[in-house]
Design goal:
This protein has 106 residues and is mainly beta. The protein has one domain. Helices cover 8% and strands 39% of the residues. The protein is built from 1 helix and 6 strands; from the N terminus they run βββαβββ. Strands 3-2-1-4-5-6 form a 6-stranded mixed beta sheet, with helices on one face. Strand 4 and strand 5 form a beta hairpin. The longest helix has 9 residues. It starts with a strand and ends in a 21-residue tail after the last strand.
């Protein structure tokens, strides 16, 4: 089982209100050295890996340093499968507040 530190997200549709944008992919820091994304994982990949208990995805709060594990859920607004961090008493580790990924063109 691998553990993946999510450091950024890609949201769609970009013109929708933030509270109803869906994460379509995440950036993970595979070298754990610099807090920058080395790999892009699609939403479906994350959902499949979490549901199959193949991998663990998590975030780390910028201010608290707390780790929050990512889980699969249904969007309360539309019912689509989404990913979210487990609820806790802090917001700085939430996927919803994470920075947007900046991918280099290849």
């Amino acid at each position: 089982m691998s553990r993946y530190h999510i450091v950024c997200t890609d949201l769609m549709p970009v013109n929708a209100p933030r509270q109803h944008q869906h994460i379509v992919s995440v950036g993970v820091d595979t070298d754990r050295a610099d807090n920058y994304a080395n790999e892009k994982h699609s939403l479906q990949t994350v959902i499949d890996n979490v549901r199959d208990k193949k991998d663990v995805y998590y975030t780390i709060g910028n201010f608290t340093g707390r780790e929050a594990v990512v889980e699969v859920a249904h969007c309360p607004a539309c019912g689509h499968l989404i990913i979210k961090t487990r609820p806790d008493d802090t917001q700085d580790d939430n996927l919803e507040t994470m920075r947007t990924c900046q991918w280099r063109a290849s």
